[in-house]
Design goal:
Length: 483
């Protein structure tokens, strides 16, 4: 039993981290009322956390490799606990936004070092089991976040969603000190500050550009300017990595078709998971469920993810990642296609259930297989780099998915309502904000928007499945040690 205590420590931290990416969604109206915050401020309460995670995940993995993964994990937990306390006592929106950004700093380091700790603590079948359980916890956390947030907000206050992180962080810190020994790169390796700065610029500008694209359109001046800044940052990052003796990312991996296919599968899986944002809107605006009930309607997906990841992590660790990752993407694609074909304006929440179960199974199969394939492609002393790359591509997939699918969702609704209602803009805003409506034409438009989202997700998943089947090696070999 003692050998699984490290897994408990990692799962506690990861559960808390992922819940905090979604728990705030339900509490935003109460936060706005309690702090007299504007809509723009509330959007930043959500977006700053995502931005910081995207900007720092790869950097945090590299720092963990150099300074020690156990040390960085403990520090990240302390930062997360302290920033959660600051969130809970925030007197205004500005302080809350700053505290959420600090949460993102702790969360980025926590996420990538937790993956690296699992990858270096367990081997063989035990690693498969650990990755399966960890992946299932991630899936459950993402689904129960809105339910958890709704229960705490309704029974106590919005501040409770942040207070609850403090005892969990303290327990996790105690377990971490007991269970883990320190692991790091050789002592002569140096922190890659140019790489950290240029990658933060690249990923931060790209993620914020995707956020603005979803709100202002892809051709707005700010959106295009941010994408240009991201491109410049990427060029500077490559130049910095080529010159540094201990680069935070081994660029030779980017020439490996197998590794790139694994990263594409991570993007596609995260993209498919982004469709749940619009499913939640549909459940609330069209089906008429409360936020808590909408969260409960998504729990079958979490259950399927938990069962699939636990079973496959334990039993399929010897199977080629080409098979498991391709099968996972096919399941995600088929599940999205099912929902894209069966949901209509008269559907209840049960119409989405078969597709959600298949998507959940696909996510559950894919997460442990992808994590294991990534760790097999890098040397053990660079486990943080591998987990950082995976986490970064997952964040990119989520940000890209929400931005692009948001445009698809809104465009289809707008086209469907054209000429059918007097105030199309107001009607569209009702559907995209999740406010319940009883108007039949809005039910049809909302359903058509959601089915378009699912069909777009299905297409990407199937393209990614083709790429993984063609390019992932049967048995990835460890990358050579970086300079």
């Amino acid at each position: 039993m003692r050998k699984w205590l490290p897994l408990v420590a990692v799962c506690l931290g990861s559960f808390m981290l992922i819940v905090d990416t979604t728990v705030v969604t339900v509490a935003l109206p109460e936060i706005g009322t309690g702090l007299d915050a504007s809509l723009s401020s509330l959007q930043w309460v959500m977006n700053i956390y995502t931005l910081v995670l995207a900007a720092l995940t790869l950097s945090a993995g590299s720092v963990g490799d150099l300074l020690g993964r156990r040390k960085v994990y403990l520090l990240s937990l302390a930062v997360f606990a302290g920033s959660s306390l600051l969130c809970a006592v925030s007197p205004g929106a500005g302080v809350l936004i700053a505290a959420r950004g600090l949460q993102g700093v702790g969360g980025a380091a926590m996420f990538v070092t937790s993956m690296a700790l699992l990858g270096t603590t367990y081997e063989g079948k035990d690693r498969g089991v650990a990755m399966g359980v960890w992946s299932s916890v991630i899936g459950v956390a993402a689904a129960v976040g809105p339910v958890f947030g709704g229960l705490l907000t309704e029974s106590m206050s919005w501040r409770a969603i942040f207070y609850v992180n403090i005892p969990i962080s303290l327990v996790t810190m105690v377990l971490t000190k007991i269970c883990f020994t320190e692991s790091r790169q050789p002592a002569n390796a140096r922190v890659d500050f140019p790489g950290i700065i240029t990658f933060a610029l690249t990923s931060g500008a790209l993620t914020y550009g995707l956020i603005r694209a979803g709100e202002d359109g892809w051709t707005s001046g700010l959106t295009l300017g941010l994408f240009a800044l991201a491109l410049l940052g990427a060029v500077l990052f490559v130049l910095a990595e080529r010159r540094h003796p201990s680069p935070m990312l081994d660029l030779s991996l980017m020439r490996d078709a197998s590794f790139l296919a694994i990263m594409l599968s991570t993007i596609a899986s995260a993209w498919g998971f982004s469709s749940l944002v619009f499913t939640s809107l549909w459940l609330q605006s069209v089906v008429g469920l409360t936020p808590i009930k909408a969260g409960l309607a998504l729990l079958p997906l979490a259950a399927a993810t938990f069962l699939a990841s636990t079973l496959t992590g334990k039993r399929l660790h010897e199977v080629s990642p080409r098979v498991t990752i391709t099968a996972a993407l096919l399941l995600v694609g088929v599940g999205c296609a099912i929902n894209g074909l069966v949901i209509d304006g008269d559907s209840s929440w049960t119409a989405a259930l078969p597709g959600l179960l298949v998507i959940g199974a696909g996510v559950g199969v894919g997460m442990p297989a992808t994590a294991s394939a990534v760790f097999a492609s890098v040397p053990p002393q660079r486990a943080g780099m591998g987990s950082g790359a995976m986490a970064t591509f997952r964040q990119l997939g989520q940000a890209l998915g929400v931005a692009v699918l948001g445009l698809v969702f809104a465009h289809v609704i707008r086209e469907d309502l054209d000429g059918k209602v007097a105030d199309a803009a107001s009607a569209e805003n009702t559907l995209t904000s999740g406010r319940p409506t009883t108007l039949g034409v809005l039910h049809d438009a909302g359903a058509h928007g959601l089915t378009a989202v699912y069909l777009a997700s299905a297409g990407l998943a199937l393209v990614a499945a083709t790429a993984t089947a063609a390019f992932i090696r049967k048995r990835p070999h460890a990358a050579p040690e970086t300079r």
